């Protein structure tokens, strides 16, 4: 019998990318850092909820815009943070809101970066019911700017029982001071 993660991965592999979030096959696996945070490129820092879609489109890389602003999904095992385990924190690529610490990141084998918990019990994350594509899931979005991050599942490590399955292109990484 296949695990839930394996079933989801098989579903993703069998489903065309045109259906999964309308993301192009040419998505790169670039990683983003603090300089890439979209709202910082707008000059006058404004409330992220007031940024128009045309402004987001100007300041975000195409693949990040497609995933974060249009609820897309990057291909499994293609994201820069899937097998990335440096110390630091992950923030929203659109607005810079703190999302996850590296100490909650683990290898789940599902094809996307996995975290067992968010910073401060979902301080900057909202959960929404997602019944798209014939599945019942819980979508996670940035509470500050409404960017699509990924999904959270109830098959994570014992500590929390949760697995946040997050698109690499929806996040930037801020390395810890050593």
From TrEMBL:
Residues 53-176 form the MsrB domain. The keyword Zinc applies. It catalyses: L-methionyl-[protein] + [thioredoxin]-disulfide + H2O = L-methionyl-(R)-S-oxide-[protein] + [thioredoxin]-dithiol. GO terms for cellular component: cytoplasm. Its cofactor is Zn(2+). One of its GO terms (molecular function) is metal ion binding. Binds 1 zinc ion per subunit. Keywords: Metal-binding, Oxidoreductase, Zinc. GO terms for biological process: protein repair; response to oxidative stress. Its EC number is 1.8.4.12. It holds the Pfam family SelR. Gene3D superfamilies: Peptide methionine sulfoxide reductase (2.170.150.20). Methionine-sulfoxide reductase that specifically reduces methionine (R)-sulfoxide back to methionine. While in many cases methionine oxidation is the result of random oxidation following oxidative stress, methionine oxidation is also a post-translational modification that takes place on specific residues. Belongs to the MsrB Met sulfoxide reductase family. PANTHER family: METHIONINE SULFOXIDE REDUCTASE, METHIONINE-R-SULFOXIDE REDUCTASE B1. This is Peptide-methionine (R)-S-oxide reductase. It comes from Haemonchus contortus. The lineage of its organism: Eukaryota, Metazoa, Ecdysozoa, Nematoda, Chromadorea.
